[in-house]
Amino acid sequence: MTEPLRIAVLKERASGETRVSATPETVKKFIALGAVVAVEKGAGEGASISDAEYEAVGAEVKSGAVTGADVVLGVQGPEPKALSGVRAGAWVVATLDPFRERARIDEYASLGLEALAMEFMPRITRAQSMDVLSSQSNLSGYKAVIEAANLYGRAFPMMMTAAGTVSAAKAFVMGVGVAGLQAIATARRLGAQVSATDVRSATKEQIQSLGAKPIFVENVAGIEGEGAGGYATEMSEEYQKAQADLVSSHIAKQDIVITTALIPGRPAPRLISDAQIASMKPGSVIFDLAVAQGGNVEGSVPDQVVVKHGVKIVGYSNTPAKLPADSSALYARNLYNFLSAFWDKEKGRPVLDEEIGDAVRLTKDGKVVNERLLG
Ligand code: NAD
User: Of the residues 130, 260, 289, which should be mutated to test ligand 1's pocket, given the most ligand atoms within 8 Å of the CB?
Assistant: First the structure.
């Protein structure tokens, strides 16, 4: 009989990281598949999961959980020194931030680890349930609106009161991917009048179907349909100028702006300039969900409320970490869905196929092997 696969669940060490990569629910399922799961002491603390809850489903809870591990699960990429004692060729499954953490990826390679970057999951139907970017963006879009509402000195819904009418807030969502769609839905639920924009034409209908108004550049072509893999690319100068003009005329009338625009492997596109902020009403709030990737908004600073021209600009370096219980639950399921989908019963471990395996695998046999990193 083969030895059972050993899975280690790390306690996250990055500052501000509150999430955990496995929950009692997913640990139980891994054990049901035949794996042994070791969870680092206190790993679930930030997400309100106690060691006892992991123990109750059969996990070993200890410090040094990585010793002898075949698979190490993390939210963020672990420091290579936190991995000493793992088996040769062990998998490291986490969001590894491959472009910005290249030196660390090289270290994983030289340690002979097989690093699997969850954010490189291809956007194909069968991988939807494994897509950590979607699950985390969804919650981020929600949280961005809640935080903006909290900082806004007025109400979102229209209210007719005996003392007079409170008018509805006007919210504008820039970038309508997973986070943007959830931001639209959340702002609508709170009673705001919502408009939204994107460079991908496919989003127009999605905006309308959520009851919001699409605001689109008409005179210069954007990205037809969804774009490659649902992702945007950098736009031409001509488009950027047309977009800036459009935004300038629209933004001055908005109370709340949520920006979510990202381009994979690139700094976030700049969508709002200081001059545009100056045209907004004092008391307006801008939430820059792209702040950690360079920011969509001029002057936004991670984890600070910056006030410019009377407008509050806010954004977190790690928005999903602000709702760790839900973001961990979804993230953990993404990892479970991924590893269990490839479970080989005879080998008692996952065996990846080419389409998904090659997309997410960064390192193997001492080398960096991913096309996107080899350029
Ligand atoms: P993202 O986080 O990469 O970017 C956020 C949004 O910003 C995107 O809609 C993008 O078009 C937009 N954007 C980029 N540059 C912009 C600019 N200059 N101005 C305005 N907007 C700009 O995107 P995402 O949330 O990861 O999702 C993108 C698409 O992929 C969505 O349509 C989503 O439904 C699809 N998707 C598919 C799958 C799957 O099939 N497995 C999984 C996840 C997402």
Answer: 260
